[in-house]
Amino acid sequence: MKPVKDVKLWPGMKISDLLDQLEDSGGFAAKYLGAAARILKAMLKDGECVRFLSFVAAPIATGLRGVLAEVVKRGLFDAIITTCGSLDHDIARALSNYYNGDFWLDDAELREKGYHRLGSVLVPLESYGPAIERFMQELLEEAYGEGVRELGSCEVADLIGRRLQDENSVFRWASARGVKVFVPGIMDGAVGTQLWLFQQKHRDFKLNLFRDAEKLAEIVFQAKRTGALMIGGGISKHHTLWWNQFKDGLDYAVYVTTACEYDGSLSGARVSEAVSWMKVKPDAMKVTVYGDATIVVPLLVAGALEADQ
C-alpha cells in the first residue's frame, strides 16, 4: 500500500518534475499518465529495444504533428505504423494551411463554402483532394519514368517524405532518418485513391504489401526487445501488436486512447487484453492512458526530452 501523495508545484518547475509526481497522486487518469511517462523514459533509454510509434490520422491534422515530427527527427523511434490519412494530412499541410475551427460549426454551411471539418480543425477543400492529387500524380509519374513498377507502402511513404520540404513533416523526417513507415491500410485514403488512379493509366504498376511484411519481419525477428507508443486505435494499433506477437509480445507498451473497452473493439481494448493474445508480454512495462492525445502526448514527449538532457 502506497499513500496518496499531494502534487507539489513551484515556479520554474519542469514538465518532467510534474510527471514524476503523478503516478503516486492516486487519481485518476493522472496516475496512468505518470506511469506512461516512466515507461516511455525506460523504453527510450533501452539501447537494445526496437521502438515502434503508431498513430492514427487525425492528430496529423493538429499541432501534434509537430511533436511527432520532432521525435522522429531526434531518432527516438525505429519504425512507424500508421494510416493512409496520416500521409494525406502530412502532404496537405506541407503544401498549404489548415485552420482553427470549432466542433459546433454548421457543417452544411462549411460544405457550401468549401471546407471540410475534422473535429475542431477546418480543412479547405482545395488544400486536400486536389492538392494531394497533383502532388501524388507528379511523384508517381516521376518514379515510373525512373523505372519503378512496384512499391510497398513503406516505399510509397519514403517517396512522399523525400519530396516534402516542410520542416514539420513527419514523413520528411522519417525519410531523412531512415525510419521505416508502414501503412497497412494504404488504400483507405486520398493517397491510396491516387495510387489506384495512377494504375488505371499504367497497368503494369503494382502495389505489393508483401514487401512491407518482409521488412517488418526483419525488424521484429532481429530485435532483442521491442516497445511501442500507440496513439489511438484501429489498424495502426493492431498491426503494431500483431507483428510483435511473433516475438512473444512487446516488452514496453503505452496506449493513449479515448475509446472504451465495453464494445469489444480493438481501439478500446486495454493493454492487459493484449497479454492474452501474446501481443504484449505478461511482465512488460505497460499502461493504458485515457485521454486526448493532443494533450497527453506533448506532455509525455516533453517530459522524456527533459529527462534526456
Task: Describe the protein's architecture and organization.
- By secondary structure, this protein is of the alpha/beta class.
- The chain has helices spanning 15-22, 29-45, 64-73, 84-95, 107-113, 129-145, 153-163, 170-177, 190-201, 210-222, 234-244, 271-276, 293-307, and strands at 49-55, 79-82, 99-100, 115-118, 121-124, 150-151, 180-182, 206-207, 225-231, 250-257, 280-290.
- The strands form three sheets. Strands 7-2-1-9-10-11 form a six-stranded parallel sheet, with helices on both faces.
- Helix 3 links the parallel strand 1 and strand 2.
- Helix 1 (15-22) crosses helix 2 (29-45) and helix 3 runs parallel beside helix 8 (170-177).
- The chain is globular.
- It starts with 14 loop residues before the first helix and ends with a helix.
- 44% of the residues are buried.
- The model has no long low-confidence stretch (mean pLDDT 97).
Q: Roughly what fraction of the amino acids lie in strands?
A: 15-25%
Q: Compute the separation of the termini in Å.
A: 33 Å
Helix content: 40-55%
User: In angstroms, what is the radius of gyration?
Assistant: 20 Å
Give the overall shape, derived from the CA principal axes. globular
Mean pLDDT: 97
SSE order, one letter for each helix or strand? HHEHEHEHEEHEHHEHEHEHEHEH
Which ranges are low-confidence, i.e. pLDDT below 50, for 5 or more consecutive residues? none
Question: In total, how many beta strands?
Answer: 11
SS field, number of helical segments: 13
